[in-house]
Amino acid sequence: MIEVKNVAKSFGTTIALVDVSFSVAESSVFVLIGPNGAGKTTVMRCMIGELKPDKGSIFVNSSPLNIEAKKHMAMMLEERQVFDKMTGSEHAKVWSMMYKSWNDSRFKDLVLHFRLPMDKRVSEYSIGMKTLLFFILTVSTDSKILILDEPTQHLDPVWKDDVLSIIRSYAQRGNTIILSTHQVEEAELMATHFAIIRSGRVLYSDELDAAKENHRVVRVEEMEEELEQITVMNNDTVLVKTNKEIGRYPTFREIALGYLRSKESVLIQ
Asked: Which domain does 239 fall in, by range?
């Protein structure tokens, strides 16, 4: 459905993205996982058309990203930018005018569930309340593609669990979700597909279940020359990329941390 192909982006002398490529399947939950500053936000802003790549292309349904495709996309920015003098209700009015697919019933239900004070200026909200407001606004657009940048940031455990549940339900209705996180456990809970990103490069991208099947954790004494070593996990075990029946299957956490700790940033298709 969405293909990011060889995208590069710099801001002056700062390199943000280097030859980034991955594909997002329709009706999937695609998670970009990596540390802060890895390039997750930049690539998402390119996907929504807010930033123009210096090199490379983004395709939606086999066509280059265009105005028509953007009509079916909504993005929740990590910055949580607000109009200082506007209330929550006034923010909602602006969003409802921007999206023809706006679902006012869903918006009201979620506001009631999360108990947001909609008559209060959003500039006076806590950071967590701003996260909830912009999550609710984005989900209420009823867009076919949601791009969510750190959607659980600054939320307490209960609200975080509710947000993740809403995301899963939204995807189950046939929509596509692209979200970013630096939390491995959260990524495993949500992802059907993922890309691990560090220093502006995709280290590894795959379907969640396939990734586990295509890696093994082996003891150092089991290592063979033809095995593709990803990283040494501790003094006596190594994460390798192989479907050979040796060692044991890794957890997603071991795969993600293994690539993030690997010494070289290798793009794997």
From this structure: 214-261
